[in-house]
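tool=predict chain=A
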Amino acid sequence: MKAFLILFTLLSLLGCTKEHSDRNILSENNDSLSHPDNNTSTDSNTSTENNTSSVQRDPLFSSQWYLENTGQSVGSAAGAVSGEDIHIKDVWSKYQGKGIKIAIVDTGIESQHPDLQNVDQNLSYRYSDNTHTSNLTHEQMKTSSDNAHGTACAGIIGAQINSIGIQGIAPEATLVGLNVFSNPTDTTFQEALAYPNVDISSNSWGNSGYELFDDSYSVAGIEEGLKKGRDGKGIIYIFAAANLSTNANTFTPSNHLGVITVAATDADGKQASYSNHGSNILLSAPGGEYGQNKVAIVTTDLTGKGIGMDEGIVDSFYKGDGNYTAVMNGTSAATPMVAAVTALMLEANPNLTYRDVSYILARTARINDPSDSSWHQNGAGYMISEKYGFGMLDANQSVNMAETFTGLQKQKSTKKYENNTSLSIPDNDFSGISESISVFEDIKVEHVDVWVDIVHPNIRDLEITLTSPSGTTSTLAYNGETSGTYANWRFGIVQMLDEKSSGEWKLTVIDKVGTNNGILKKFSLKIYGR
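tool=predict ok
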């Protein structure tokens, strides 16, 4: 792996070893803005008296538009669109994540934060000195604006309901801080992802560039956790789609079997300006924008004024104690929301497997931004989008379905099929070339893996699509978005959910730019389902 680890792309580069450099914390900030006080609400249009749930509301609840969107502005120039939230408030009277352990694989969690006293220090781990603690190192505190990231994710998930600050989506969950960025090596990430004794793994990090990135160490950790975690039911892995406005399917492990990949929306319920897209995205959740012109995410920050995410932002929560921020954003923020709702689902039904959770989240996601042209119907009748996956996270519907869900049938898979026909890819020809594979096993599709072996001097010229026997076309690669080589590169697809596997699967490759010729050497296909 090459170059440097980028933490908060707009802010700084941190020196680190080249071994781990392509992994990136996935938040997008910073803007200077005026925030509400830490202990009082400034949005008068939100009243707890009108809430259908009797659960207590902490002081900053009315600034947490992702929990209940009433159109509040939270210090930004533009307000939100009422109703564009995760539909959580009716769930809390029944479930708050009690007994569920969530690993936050990140920069550590500040253990002394008064809103995060549900961090289990005995389970948490700091990899720089092999210590059971969630805390940041002294070196990390020197760049606190970068390394507040884990604490911010923790608040979204599990800030307690305690009459101060904000409240998390799963306020009674147990938080486990795995501080991989204190010593971010390949082995560290593998160990953290295979970490035992947790139920959910929340991962708001990913590739730092546009080049194909195959993270085999992280994949190995995930495969171990899927097999052994939760007594064989599998750890639930939630990954950010990343913030480059490019193809999320060019990064592992976010395109891997068993990983739930999350895109981000803004407070209007539309695609966030930075959010990646792709056929591996299962669903979307609020990630916010930059805070000045459009609202970002209010969450926990490193304690004290002038440090953490708000470092250098003159007006940020300075009427209060500085323990909270309103400039968290990115698929980094969307991912812990899905992790937290998953905790509520597991509290409702501890028998759910990782496949069950993924299926429920897809089936219960609601259609947001319905007029967007990316929406189309798959062969099973489900609406899908390269921007939003199956739609926006809906906590109420997900938990309701989880309560009575009896489980998917045992996983099956087809054999790995190969088409070894070598074809020249015509240059600057929008018709392209197509090759097919006939699948004979008949299973209900949950995930499709496609390997392509293409020789081309500039893969950015290429668009690659896969069409299922039911006629659903998914884009694997977009013209102008990716660099590297397609040397048996694997794409992961979730869009054909519940279609039948048997029949002809067609791969199409189009070279949309002149001057470079290429060859499709072969492609392969394997389908997982039931």
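The mean pLDDT is 90. The first strand starts at residue 6 and ends at 7.
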